[in-house]
Amino acid sequence: MKHKVDVLIIGAGPAGIFTALEISKHNKELKILIVDNGRTIEKRKCPARATGVCVGCKPCAITRGWSGAGAFSDGKLSLSPAVGGRLTEYMKEEQAQELIDYADSIYRGFGAQEKVYGLDTRRVEELQYEASRHSIQLIHCPVRHLGTELAYNVLKGMYEHLMNTTNTTFWELAEVKDILAGPEGVLGATIKRRDEDELDEVFAKYVVAAPGRGGATWLAEQTIRLGVVTENNEVDIGVRVEVPNSIMDHLTKDLYEAKLVYYSDTYDLKTRSFCVNPGGVVSEEHYDGGIAVVNGHSYADPEKKTKNTNFALLVSTRFTEPFHQPIEYGRYIARLANMLTGGGVMVQRLGDLLKGRRTTESRLRKSTTIPTLLSAVPGDLSYVLPERYLTSLIETLKAFDKIAPGMYSKNTLLYGVEVKFYSSKVKVKTNFETAIPRLYAIGDGAGITRGLMQASATGIVVGRDIVSKV
């Protein structure tokens, strides 16, 4: 089948959604097609949310589908350009902040709660002062937390708005095989829809590649095929830490998400906290190839809060030439963990790790920190993570214990592995257009952003650019 549209958007995460919102706001006549290899938001059902056990749905309801991975998982909106991506590499900080404020107003217009954490600058300064005594940098970033259930409602509202009041169509369970381009620019894409025997050929004046982290490998392959220049991005690999709320409450009460950075003592590697979930739940998500990695989320409803706080602790490494496979390296580490667990996520007590022994079911039962990921398999992370990473993670936890006493406890739980599949960064202009005319690359999958808000901002930039050209 052959189809013709004005704009083809590949990926239904925040970057793609905000591209469509901005285009339709200024030009309702343009025909927009959004495709994603996941399902519509109403069909995204994760059995593990009810049972605690992942059954390996294909596609994974957590990482694929309308609203993308981050929005469906937790819904944290970072309201500063200092966090969540590389916007300031393409524009001045003031412009980046204006885009974030504008995107935030759209989220609020669709029902995001008004409360913002981190506005008490005096309290933030006190925490920064205390952290600085221990060589820890606390990055100030106001956060609007949607919560897993409210994020669903907000993104569903955007879906209904686009489908019911604009010239936008959404194809679910649609796999883009190839982006098509000629001497004069982009032409469209070939797409395989589930339950369809033949490929669809979609011809478009503008193509926006916004596949998210789940599509990072696919986009890297497309850039090679099309001859689009990329550069290596950092590789972020680590664990998800779970501790009782009592250890983190004094930080999360005012900040919600305490973004902490520490340079490890032995190897001087940058190690940072990320995706903090007070009263949250550790979760499992799956990527192409059957890879299981750990993540976390939390609900806005106080009744759904747990007794634990979880957060990612990641070691950042930027490799140099001739290394050019940051995604595959992260996948390799994840596969090692899956190999030892029979396909799932591993959990280990910090005390067992420090003693050089595997956590067993009996040892896990002795833990005063009760795991929230019921399917996690007790094991030994030292067989998975490179020594440089493991040492850096342990040294960082020891440092964090000075501002969050109890962190460096034998009962602290470490889930592995947590990997952020940041694509090799696609070389784009300030409007996020590639060297191929009218082909744009945005969001996390393009290696440009690392969170909901900055991904949304890139969509706004592209939407405005397309409207101006039309």
From TrEMBL:
Residues 6-219 form the FAD-dependent oxidoreductase 2 FAD-binding domain. InterPro entries: FAD-binding_protein, FAD-dep_OxRdtase_2_FAD-bd, FAD-depend_C, FAD/NAD-bd_sf. Keywords: Flavoprotein, Oxidoreductase. Residues 236-419 form the FAD-dependent protein C-terminal domain. Pfam families: FAD-depend_C, FAD_binding_2. Coiled coil: none annotated. GO terms for molecular function: oxidoreductase activity. This is FAD-binding protein. It comes from Desulfosporosinus fructosivorans.
